[in-house]
Amino acid sequence: MPDLMINPSDTPNPNARKFTLNLPVGETMLNLGSADEAAAYPLATDLFALTGVTNIFLTADFITVNKASDRSWESLEPDILAIIQNYYA
Fold first, then answer.
1. Helical (H) or strand (E) element with 35
2. Measured between alpha carbons, how far is 75 from 4 in angstroms, rounded to an integer?
3. What is the pLDDT of residues 15-31, one digit of tens each?
4. Domain count within the chain
């Protein structure tokens, strides 16, 4: 298995950030709007555990995370990256 690479990038929505991976995220598209909806998906469950995460979109080779407008990417992104890295470790 290749080493995991994650490329965070901005989206047109300032409250959404795209995390592109060099590994497949999933074969189906998932748009999860709450921790309850994410209960069957460990990666999404861990992301929703972060204060301020409001939506998670997973498909193909990327994950888009939406945050509450009162949260900063500077505070969330390191935790998001750590969760993704731990999930694929």
1. none
2. 22
3. 999 999 999 998 789 99
4. 1
